[in-house]
Amino acid sequence: MPFTVVPATRFSCEQLTAMLNDCFEGYSVPVLMSVSVFAQRFGAEGLSLMDSCVWMDGDNPVAVAIITRRGQSARLAAFAIRPAYRGKGLGKKLLAPLMEALGNDGVQEMWLEVISDNQPGVALYQSLGFTITQGLFGYQGMQPGQATTRSLQETAVMPLVRTLMSASKERLPWLMDPATFITLPCRAFVHQQAYAVVSFLANKPQLRMIYVAPELRHRGQGREMLRALNQQFPALASVVSVPESFTTLFASAGYMTMPISQYEMRAALI
User: Count of CB atoms within 10 A of residue 245's CB?
Assistant: First the structure.
């Protein structure tokens, strides 16, 4: 039976949140999002309601795709199928036309993240032309012991964002890109010559970015910044979008690697 593709513009934020939660039921990593977190998170990531969609079987939602966009790049920020419709080979049938439509609309490349242990998901995206670009990890600080004298100074977010967008020549994962911090509830900090951004979705602190200028690296400033952050926000966790190359830095600061990891994947659409 063919499904009806309905643009996300037809639904309220409350409806989209409820449908996404329903479609993620029983997923390997629990997903239960509040309306405020849905709006803040996807808004900061570049939510495109025009490109996001819901597949309907009559009055019943079958699947939801949340698309975010920046320039000529798009990202599959969330994709889930309701339990009753899984195991029927729908993933490729639903996503292939969506990717074609994005390409026809000028999108040149598409990105996504998938849990590394989700082998069916990885296989699905590979069948659609996605290739793994790198592994992404999350890190969590330990409960700090005796207080230290590390001084963590707060700084304005937007001047830092402007500086990072002009200074950084490295391509960052979507969730660590400075563009994410423009509308995300967050605070920026400086320690010596290292910078960090901590977000506050649902009032929960989460490390989003740490930056030291290339010419100042390998001097321990990043390590001291991570320790200072964990002192102010005990057991601070990062997003699970940190490139594997940061493992040594986080380990030197006493952070543990989270059990969940992801693959970043990319597909060329044009």
Answer: 10
Is the distance from CB of 11 to CB of 54 less than 8 angstroms?
Answer: yes
The separation between the first and the last C-alpha atoms of the chain, rounded to the nearest angstrom, is 31
- Amino acid type, 253: A
What pLDDT is attached to residue 160?
93
- Rounded to the nearest angstrom, the gap between the alpha carbon of residue 146 and the centroid of all alpha carbons in its chain is 33
pTM score, whole prediction: 0.93
Q: How far apart are CA 3 and CA 56, in angstroms?
A: 5
For 105-160, write each residue's pLDDT tens digit.
999 999 999 999 999 999 999 999 999 999 999 999 987 655 555 678 999 999 99
| Alpha helices, H only, 130-255 | 157-167, 221-232, 247-252
Q: What does the radius of gyration of the chain's CA atoms come to, in whole angstroms?
A: 19
- In the predicted model, what is the mean pLDDT of the chain? 93
Cα pseudo-dihedral 95, 101, 104, 105, rounded to 10: -110
Q: Closest Cα partner for 223 from 168, 134, 141?
A: 141
CB proximity list for 146: less than 8 A, separation 6 or greater: none
What tens digit of pLDDT does each residue of 51-61 get?
Answer: 999 999 999 99
Query: With contact defined as beta carbons under 8 Å apart, do 186 and 157 qualify?
Result: yes
What are 192's two structure tokens? 């010596």
Tell me the helices (H) and strands (E) count for the chain, helix number first: 7, 13
